[in-house]
User: What shape does this take?
Amino acid sequence: MSFIVPLLKASTALFIIIDPLGLIPVFMALTQGATDSERRAILSHATLVAFVLLLLFAFTGTGILNLFGIGLSDFKIAGGILLLVLALRIIGEAHYGKTGGGKPGVVPIAVPLLVGPGAITTSIVLIGTYGLWVTVTAVVLTFTICFLIFRCVNLLYRVLGETGSDVIAKIMGMLIAAIAVQFIREGVQEIFFR
Assistant: This one.
């Protein structure tokens, strides 16, 4: 039980930050003109690349913080502010705006859409909060769910449509804002009240 509850919290936080359902219209636009099988292959490749990158950040993030003498409390506050700005952008603007060019599958699908500053920040904070193995398991679980969603991307896009995906994105934005406030609050409490 001591592993399951933190795992559920960590996985939920990562899933909300990555927001695969809200990204479906962006993915459809980036893979326009591709066949269904080509689209699935591109998204599978992007998911694998994003998964490996986030695991890499999970294993090295704390070491990087220690190298620069940054405490986890400092990173929680900075990461919380970053997530709050991201959440406000998602809530206030058209979902994710226009994406730039690049090689579909790696840029911009894997980075920065799947693994951007929000996911990296969240994974590093989760390691400090729940430990390395809970966070790594959460990354594996989250990307397994993302992979399954992306295997059904054509069907989900037909069901949700652009409007449905945008509504989901706005709801996720509110949840990201709440997670951001929690990170900031925890960081402030750790610095000033402990």
About this structure: The helical segments are 4-18, 24-30, 36-67, 72-92, 109-114, 117-130, 132-151, 153-192. Confidence is low (pLDDT under 50) at residues 95-103.
